[in-house]
Design a protein that fits this description.
Layout (H helix, E strand, L loop, with lengths): L1 H9 L11 H5 L6 H4 L4 E3 L7 E3 L8 H22 L2 H12 L10 E3 L7 H4 L10 E3 L9 E4 L9 H15 L10 H9 L7 H11 L9 H14 L4 H14 L4 H9 L7 H14 L5 H10 L2 H10 L1 H14 L3 H10 L10 H39 L3 H18 L12 E2 L5 E5 L4 E4 L4
Parallel strand pairs: 2-3, 3-5
Antiparallel strand pairs: 1-2, 4-5, 6-7, 7-8
Helix pairs in contact: 1-18, 4-5, 4-7, 4-8, 7-8, 8-9, 9-10, 10-11, 11-12, 12-13, 12-14, 13-15, 13-16, 16-17, 16-18, 17-18, 18-19
The protein binds zinc ion.
Zinc ion binds next to helix 7.
């Protein structure tokens, strides 16, 4: 339930990190957006049912698109079949099936602003916006793959094919963090490029077979962590989110807390990881051998130098993160208030550009993660109070939620976040904007 309320809140004003669509980002799809304008489509070829938005012809000709789309899906399915596992064959059949109809509808490709609020996905940094997103089945435009018009001019044919294959797996219902990670693993397995390491491909092919009992299978956790480290070293945001989602399900598992360090080995991340490592060291005495190794890998001389440059403010961020996962929300908030992650005055000029480009976005990801977690915590409490008709409890919780929004989400319109309210049909109104109210069923 907690997750669901949080997701509902994220619908229009996502704070999500993500470079890549993923299941959270799917929630950014704005069902309103296509109401006014109907995009016009053209059939990709006479023998497929794919529909291509005419807007896409700005970027490639129709024959080029045919080659890109059909090439992506053929290369992908051939490779999936070679994996030979029950899961990979199932996904291959699914991807192939998109050429027919999904739930009686043709698969559409769009290259425009309509239908997805790219800006909302990450208002601060265009580079972090998704390249493409797949609609989920609840969306009125399902099945559509939206390609980001701001990114399209810069993508090569090979990159585009990888992306489309990745999204076609999402269309089958496999999300990031909610299912075995097929999109990234099969993508790295089947669309290997010069920049990818051999190791990343090997690990990708392994995960793509899907031979696990589920996302909590310890073998899966080990494989996916290793894969993310090798395959997506620059995508600290995604790897962290993966670790976090695992952490949330296993709050008591101390190893999960060390995972965050395992996933953030770069010197650019050290202004956060060094003070966080020290907090863990202090709390867990004595450390196990594996934990000691994780700490040792973080506290390298190079990392220490880089961390030193981050200064005092970052200690507050590490504290906030640490206390959040200790379930001490009051302290976590207090520390978060003092964490100034964009203040770079103290950073020496020689490395300031690197710090601004790599460290600051990473620190912002951490800050948003904690702020989002605090908001989810109070939202969930308030939601439960409304479910139980406990007006007194709600009255005392609501100000906490408002305070978190004002402090950490200043770009949000406070009018959209009135107290949760039970509607006449029994659902609970959790958010309103000028067009509609977002409702969540009261039963878990
Ligand atoms: Zn994805």
């Amino acid at each position: 339930m907690k997750l669901f309320v949080w997701m509902a809140l994220v619908v229009a004003w996502s704070v999500v990190r993500a470079e890549d669509p993923g299941s959270q980002l799917l929630k950014n799809l704005n069902p309103q957006a296509l109401k006014g304008k109907k995009p016009s489509y053209i059939r990709l070829s006479s023998d497929t049912k794919y529909l291509l938005g005419r807007s896409c012809l700005k970027y490639h000709s129709l024959p080029q698109w045919r080659e890109i789309i059909e090439g992506a899906l053929t290369t992908g399915t051939t490779c999936l079949k070679q994996r030979g596992s029950k899961q990979s064959l199932e996904i291959a059949a699914g991807v192939e099936g998109t050429a027919q109809l999904i739930q009686g509808k043709a698969l559409k490709f769009l290259c425009e602003e309509e239908g997805y609020s790219w800006k909302a996905a990450n208002p601060r940094d265009e580079n972090l916006q998704a390249d493409a997103v797949a609609t989920d089945p609840d969306n009125p435009h399902f099945p559509t793959i939206h390609m980001n018009p701001r990114k399209l001019p810069r993508l090569s044919v090979e990159e585009l094919q990888r992306i489309l294959f990745h999204e076609s797996i999402h269309l089958l219902g496999y999300g990031h963090f909610t299912h075995i990670e097929y999109s990234y693993s099969c993508e790295h397995c089947c669309f290997h490029s010069k920049e990818d390491s051999e190791e990343a491909q090997r690990l990708g092919c392994n995960i793509c077979k899907g031979k696990y009992t589920g996302i909590k299978d310890p073998r899966y956790i080990d494989d996916i962590m290793q894969f993310f480290r090798k395959a997506l070293p620059a995508h600290s945001d995604i790897r962290l989110a993966e670790a976090q989602s695992f952490m949330k399900g296993h709050r008591q598992e101390r190893w999960a807390k060390f995972n965050v360090l395992l996933l953030s080995p770069l010197p650019d991340q050290a202004p956060f990881t060094i003070p966080y490592a020290e907090l863990l060291e202090k709390k867990y005495v004595p450390l196990s051998e594996a934990e000691s190794r994780v700490i040792k890998n973080i506290k390298t001389p190079e990392n220490k130098v880089f961390a030193f440059l981050g200064g005092e403010n970052i200690q507050h961020l590490a504290n906030a993160f640490f206390f959040f996962y200790e379930s001490d929300y009051k302290l976590s908030e207090k520390e978060l208030m003092q964490a100034q992650v964009t203040d770079v005055k103290q950073v020496p000029a020689t490395i300031r550009a690197r710090y601004v480009n790599h460290t600051v976005p990473f620190l912002e990801t951490i800050k948003e993660e904690v702020a989002g977690g605090l908001l989810a915590y109070y939202s969930d409490l308030e939601f439960q109070a409304v479910v139980q008709n406990d007006a007194q409890a709600q009255k005392s919780i609501y100000p906490h939620r408002q305070r978190i929004i004002r402090a950490f989400f200043p770009e949000w319109n406070p009018n959209y976040f009135p107290p949760f309210k039970r509607a006449e049909d029994g659902t609970i109104i959790v958010m309103v904007d000028d067009k509609e109210a977002i409702r969540v069923p009261a039963s878990p």
